[in-house]
Hints:
The structure holds two protein chains of two kinds.
Chain A: H1 3-34, H2 41-59, H3 62-83, H4 93-115, E1 131-133, E2 139-141, H5 142-164, H6 166-176, H7 178-183, H8 188-213, H9 221-235, H10 240-266, H11 271-296
Antiparallel strand pairs in A: 1-2
Helix pairs in contact in A: 1-5, 1-8, 1-9, 1-10, 2-3, 2-4, 2-8, 2-9, 3-8, 5-6, 9-10, 10-11
Chain B: H1 2-14, E1 25-31, H2 38-55, E2 60-66, H3 71-83, E3 89-91, H4 96-108, E4 112-115, H5 121-124, E5 132-134, H6 141-153, E6 156-162, H7 165-177, E7 181-188, H8 196-205, E8 209-212, H9 217-229, E9 235-238, H10 247-250, E10 258-261, H11 270-283, H12 289-307, H13 313-322, E11 333-334, E12 340-352, E13 355-368
Parallel strand pairs in B: 1-2, 1-3, 3-4, 4-5, 6-7, 6-8, 8-9, 9-10
Antiparallel strand pairs in B: 10-12, 11-12, 12-13
Amino acid sequence: MSLTLLIEQILNGLQFGVMLFLMAAGLTLIFGVMGLINLAHGSLFMVGAFACASVAAATGSFWLGLVASLAAAAAAGALVEILVIRRLYERDHLDQVLATFALILIFSEGTRWVFGSFPLYLDIPQLLSGAVHLPGGAQYPIYRLAVIGVGIAVAVGLYLLIGKTRLGMRIRAGESDREMIGALGIDIGTLYTLVFALGAALAGLAGAMVGALQSVQVGMGEPVLILAFVVIVIGGIGSIKGALVGSILVGLTETLGRFLLPHFFGLFMSNSEAATVGAALASMLIYIVMALILAFRPQGLFAANA
Amino acid sequence: MRKLLAASLLALSASVAGNAFAEPIKIGMITTLSGGGAGLGIDARDGFMLAIEQSGNKEVDVVIEDDAQKPELAVQIADKMIQSDKVDLMTGIIWSNLAMAVVPSATAQDVIYLSVNAGPSALAGAGCSPNYFNVAYQNDNFHEAMGEAANKDYKKTFIMAPNYPAGKDSLTGFKRFYKGELAGEVYTKLGQTDYAAEIAQIRASGADSVFIFLPGGMGIAFTKQYAQSGVGLPLLGPAFSFSQDVLPAIGDAALGVKNTASWAYDLDNEANKAFVEGFREAYGRLPSVYAAQGYDTANLILSAAEKASVKDKDAFRAALKEADFDSVRGKFSFNTNNHPIQDFYVREVVKDGDTLTNKIVATAFTDHKDAYAAECKM
């Protein structure tokens, strides 16, 4: 195992974490501000990917597809908030889970109805194809570096939005006391729709960027959703900072675990056995980390309302 | 929460019921028509139904239900088909874990089950049954064929599969015939979609080729990322990751990939020509290997129905075992454990006009049998 391989794996973990952050940021915002558990967040990820793939196929431009993914996911998010989610704020979490689970089924079958059951084609843009040489001789795909860049830009953007703008002030106020800010004359309905659309747009963006790396297919959002929930539980529900730290932690743990554990077991087992045991333990690793963090900090690392 | 999910899924599946006529042969088809693996089930179903339609046999009634790739759901559907629909035959399951949940109990209730795809080793060896016919392959077969074919060009292969029973069967099958050295052996998480970490390992391993078994979306994701990474070593695999259902989604990244199967659309025989043309006409796309297996399964049933009544189980089983039908795979017969004896081919992904597809470039095995037949006592 060389240093360049380790550097490459750390970058991979970072890239994975940044992608998770885009999902988790929206999820944690929606939970923090509106107190809503949105299982359908993964569907918005899928909407973004399908919008990007179909627009890219029709126009030949990945960039137009990316714009379309933001627009489509934000629109789908706003629509869902107005039609369905709005009726759920006063209900308990079980009702929210049930309704948003129904949304997953509707989105999945709706997408299948429109696009068919077979995965769509989406490739990375020409501009970002190829690899760069990193110091130390490692090679790394430009596209993945770009994903890291976009993730960092979004994190900075969200920080400025929430910390420095009037909208951000309202979002923070909504998190700490939603009745009071309603009483102060702020249109809480519009604020909720905006936050929901923002979270949806981030999920859509993640879907489009990941779609170019993976496969654009029905049900692609749910595995990511599970990890995004792990992230916000680790980071502390409602906290953007927590979502960022949690995402990077989960991304690095997952990637390095997958890579290092089989090596570790290889020290005292046959290769075939080490591969099996290492892989099995690696897939448990982030849940073990989550359990440990919850044992010592049940509210998560940076709980917003603690 | 889990109960909640299960209940909602149940409600959903209940609405997807088939039609029913009280006609001589009643076939229950449980297959995957929703979720990420739906493309495989839809192809198997379409191939199966095409053969029934082409035969013009109006006596056959097929009840189709969606298992959503969930074993517990498949078991419920199977119970319903056996007890209330009273089907004579069952077929359709794509995934080995679902087959293991359904097949042993169905065959124990004296229902004949014909597999269109899944071929777990447990059902080929000690767990074989006179009521179980596998019309596709035993799970290890495609991988064994690639192991054998790889001997010709490669000395140091990096091998990778998901960490679940079929993944282990895969690498075991490959290693059974591969004589070279392994540059690495990696098990990935089932359903994993990001392979950056594994690709970095491949790059560092000093391999001269890469063998992967990653069905469905996993294969699409890997192949795209592998092409983007610029590693560039020859990619080998069973047909599952490079079949007609996923090729359009992978795109040109799949060009040149060698993969093994018992069928390809350019296989030169009359039955196959009729199948490929009929499938294209009926559904407007090229068939995959799953469609071919579904088509053969239906034709096998039809051939047996001409010889024996399905109510006379012994006679019908004997008629099935003769495998007296025109297979799209050319030669096809059953071994002692009711699993196929057939040829396996090396195919290469090529561009035919604008369509990506597979062309046969070599034969890996002739009249190949699975490794478990000796353990089958029946």
